[in-house]
Amino acid sequence: MGVVINHFVINISLLFLFTSLTLYVMRTVLPIQPTSPRFVRFWFGVSNGLTAILLSINAIELGDARIDLRLIPIALSAAYAGPFGTIVTLGLIFIGRMTIHGMSAPFVDAIFMFIVFYLFSLVVSRFPIHRGRGYAIYVGFGALLVLIQVTASVDQTVFLHVFVPYFLMLSLGAWLCYWGSKKLETHLWMYLLHTHRATIDELTGLPNRYRTLEHMNDLEMSGKPWSLLVIDVDHFKQLNDTYGHLAGDAALRQIGQTLERSCPPSGFVGRYGGEEFLLVIEGSEGMEKVAEDIVQTVRHTTFTFQDEVIPMTVSIGAAVAGHEPSMVVFERADEALYVAKRNGRDQVRFA
After folding, report:
1. Strand ranges in the chain using DSSP code E only, listed in sequence order
2. Is domain 2-199 given the CATH code 1.10.1760 in the classification?
3. Among residues 214, 220, 260, 275, which one is catalytic?
4. Is the C or the N end of the chain the one with fewer CB within 10 Å?
C-alpha cells in the first residue's frame, strides 16, 4: 500500500509540475478556453499530451496490473482547449503509445476509446457548460469508458482490487489537479493585472513614470549610448482651465498616441507625469530629426473637443547620455526644456 501511495503522489506531482509550467509559460494568453487562438489551444494540448505520456511511463502498479492517470490531462485539454486541444493531446498519446508499445490489442482498444472521447468532446462543446462542470463530465465519461472496457475482460476479484482503487485515485487526482490549476491560473491572472496597473499609465496606455525610469536605468547599466527627450504640452493648465479636465485628458491621450506613432523602433515612450512625457532612444543618431518631427506633427495634428478645434503644441528638451547617471541626463534635458519654454515654446532645445 505504501508503494502505491508513493507512486500516486509522484504522479500527482508530475501533473502539478507540468500544469504549473504550462500555465506560467502561457500566462500572457490566459485564460485558456475553447475560443482562445488556435496556437494557444495547440500548445496547451501538446503540453497535456506529453504529460499523459509521462504518466503512462510512470504507471502505478497494483499487483500484476499497471494503471495510470493520463485521463486527467486529457480531461484538462477538453475542458480548457475544447475539441481541438483534445485531438492534439490524444494524437500525441497515440504517437507515444505506438512508439513505446507498438501495435497490440490493448492499443487498438485505446484508439477506439480515443475516438469516442473526441466525439464526446465535440458534443459537449456545443453546450454552454461551466468549465469546472465540463471537466467533471469529461473525467466521469472517461472513467465510464474504462469501466465498460474492463468489466467484460476481468473477474470481480481483479476489479475490486485494481479498478476500484484506480477510480478512487483518479477522482482524487482529478480534483486536486483542477483545484490547483484554477488557483494558479487565478494567481497568474491577478499578477499580470497588478503588474499592468503598476507599470502602465491608465489615461494614455503608455508606460508610466516607474516603468520609464526603469528603462532609462537599464540603458544606463548596459553602457550603450542613448538619448532622452523630455516633452511637455504647452499651455496645458490654460487648456484645463478653459475647457475642463475632460478636454485635458483627451488631449493627453491624443498626444500619447502621436508620440507612439513617432517613436522610432529603438525608442521607448512613456508618461512621466502630468503633461510631461519622456522618449528614450538607443543611440544618438537621428535624435534631432525625431524631436523636430514630433514638434511639427503635434502642431499639425488637429485636436477637436466638443466640435471645437483647439491648437496643440509641445516643447522638447533633448540630451545625449554620456558616462553619467540617468537622472543627470534627465536634469540636463529638463533644463533644455525650460529654455525652449522661455524662448516661445513649440520648439526643441538641445542640452
Report:
1. 60-62, 65-67, 226-233, 267-273, 276-282, 303-305, 308-310, 314-320, 348-350
2. yes
3. 275
4. N
